[in-house]
Automatic annotation (TrEMBL):
Its main location: cytoplasm. GO terms for cellular component: cytoplasm. The keyword tRNA processing applies. The gene is tsaE. It comes from the Bacteria. It is found in: Cytoplasm. Belongs to the TsaE family. Pfam families: TsaE. This is tRNA threonylcarbamoyladenosine biosynthesis protein TsaE.
Amino acid sequence: MALADADATEAFGRALARRARPGDVIALSGPLGAGKTSIARGLLAALGLEGEAPSPSFAIVQPYDPPEVAFPVLHVDLYRIDDPAEADELGLDDARRESLLLVEWPERLPDTLWGDALWLTLTIESDGSRALTARVPAAWKDRWPL
């Protein structure tokens, strides 16, 4: 899928919000500046977040709860995680039962944690647009494509 610019990337996130639900994991992979946070911002805006969602780069986990959004969402940035043991302290396994997890830099942890994730990979094309590819798990088959 081609995403022409930042607006298209956020619009994709808004469309994704219509299909996402608590218990889902959406893994956002790609290089710095590829649009991972733009997808997350579009999704969060569609779920009711007013204002711009900050990147969770320093906080690692940025929680959003009703009434701020329609249902609980954890926006996670694993860029600064060096050891998978560090992620255990985040409590993501427990949190995902009730929340949607948006995980940037999921490749920083073992793939076994994300076996049921909708895995979206962004690449930056030579013209500045973004290409998005998806690995769609069984749980998303009836919700994909958007």
